[in-house]
Structure to design on (311 residues):
C-alpha cells in the first residue's frame, strides 16, 4: 500500500517524515486540502508520472480527518475506494497537524487499517535529551547524557533545528563516532530564536528595511539558512492556521485551545495583514526552499535571500 497518513502536533516532525518519503523522488506534487478537493489529488495519483517513475503526491492539512473541517466538499467515497483498491504505483501522503483524529469517521478507520500511519508525538522539553541521544545512536554515534543536555541548551529546543545540528555534527565527525562538549562548542551554532522572531515580525509587518537588517545580522553570525527556514515555517504555519480557524468563525479562545498556544500568540497572528492565500504561498515556498537545499538542488547561500527578495 502506497498511502501514508502522518499526523501530530509538531509540524517539524511531520515535515521531516514527508521529506524522508519524498527525498529520492523527482516528481513531487503538493495539495492543500484545506482549500483543494481530495478528488483532484486522487485524479493526479491515478495518472502515471511524465518522468515514467513513481510520483509522490502530498495532501497537507487533511482536516477532514479531524473534528474540524473546511467548506471544501471532498469526495470521501472516492478516497475510500482508492485506499481499498490497494494496488497503486504512485505514493500518497496525507498530513494534518493535530494530535487526535476523528476516530468515528469511516475514512479514518479505513486509513488506520490499510495505510501506513505515522503519529509524531510532540516531544516535551524534558524528553529532548533522550531524543538527541537516540538520533546520534541511530546514526552510529555515541553521546552521553551530560553532553546531550549541553547540546540542547546550546542549540535550543526547536526540533527541526536540533535535527539540522545533529546532521551537521554527523558530517563533521565522520571519522570519530564519539560526540563531546568540545565538538559542540566548535561545530554547533548557538540558538538564535530572538533574531529569527525579529525577522518574522519584520516580514509580517512588511517592514523590508528591518527585514534585511535582521537577515544580514543572521548571515554575519553565520547562521544556517535551513535553521532560519525551519523557524520561519513554524511561525507562518501558526499564522495560517489561526487565520483559517478565524475564517471559520472560531473565537480567539477556541483557536488558542485548538492549536494549544497562548492567546497572545493568536492575537498577534490575527493582527498580521497577510491573507490566507498569501500565507499558503509563503509556506509552499519555504517548503520548496527547505527541500531544495537539503537535496542539493538549491544553493543555500542564495536561496533564502532570493525568497526574501520576492516576498
Amino acid at each position: 500500500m502506497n498511502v501514508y497518513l502522518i499526523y501530530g502536533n509538531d509540524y517539524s516532525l511531520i515535515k521531516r517524515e514527508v521529506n524522508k518519503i519524498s527525498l529520492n523522488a523527482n516528481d513531487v506534487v503538493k495539495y492543500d486540502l484545506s482549500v483543494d478537493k481530495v478528488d483532484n489529488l486522487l485524479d493526479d495519483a491515478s495518472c502515471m508520472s511524465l518522468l515514467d517513475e513513481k510520483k509522490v503526491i502530498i495532501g497537507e492539512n487533511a482536516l477532514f480527518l479531524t473534528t474540524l473541517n473546511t467548506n471544501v466538499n471532498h469526495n470521501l467515497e472516492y478516497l475510500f475506494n482508492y485506499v481499498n483498491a490497494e494496488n497503486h504505483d504512485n505514493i500518497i501522503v496525507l498530513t494534518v497537524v493535530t494530535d487526535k483524529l476523528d476516530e468515528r469517521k469511516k475514512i479514518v478507520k479505513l486509513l488506520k487499517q490499510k495505510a501506513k500511519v505515522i503519529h509524531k508525538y510532540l516531544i516535551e522539553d524534558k524528553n529532548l535529551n533522550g531524543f538527541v541521544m537516540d538520533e546520534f545512536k541511530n546514526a552510529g554515534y555515541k553521546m552521553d547524557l551530560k553532553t546531550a543536555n549541553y547540546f540542547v541548551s546550546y542549540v535550543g529546543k526547536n526540533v527541526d533545528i536540533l535535527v539540522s545540528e545533529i546532521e551537521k555534527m554527523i558530517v563533521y565527525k565522520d571519522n570519530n563516532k564519539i560526540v563531546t562538549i568540545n565538538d559542540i562548542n566548535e561545530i554547533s551554532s548557538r540558538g538564535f530564536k530572538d533574531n529569527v522572531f525579529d525577522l518574522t515580525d519584520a516580514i509580517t509587518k512588511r517592514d523590508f528595511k528591518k527585514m534585511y537588517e535582521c537577515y544580514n545580522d543572521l548571515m554575519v553570525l553565520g547562521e544556517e539558512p535551513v535553521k532560519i527556514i525551519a523557524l520561519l515555517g513554524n511561525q507562518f504555519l501558526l499564522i495560517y492556521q489561526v487565520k483559517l480557524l478565524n475564517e471559520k468563525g472560531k473565537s480567539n479562545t477556541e483557536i488558542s485551545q485548538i492549536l494549544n498556544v497562548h492567546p497572545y500568540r493568536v492575537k498577534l497572528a490575527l493582527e498580521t495583514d497577510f491573507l490566507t492565500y498569501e500565507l499558503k504561498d509563503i509556506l509552499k515556498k519555504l517548503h520548496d526552499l527547505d527541500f531544495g537545499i537539503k537535496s542539493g538542488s538549491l544553493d543555500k547561500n542564495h536561496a533564502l535571500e532570493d525568497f526574501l527578495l520576492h516576498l
Notes: The mean pLDDT is 86.
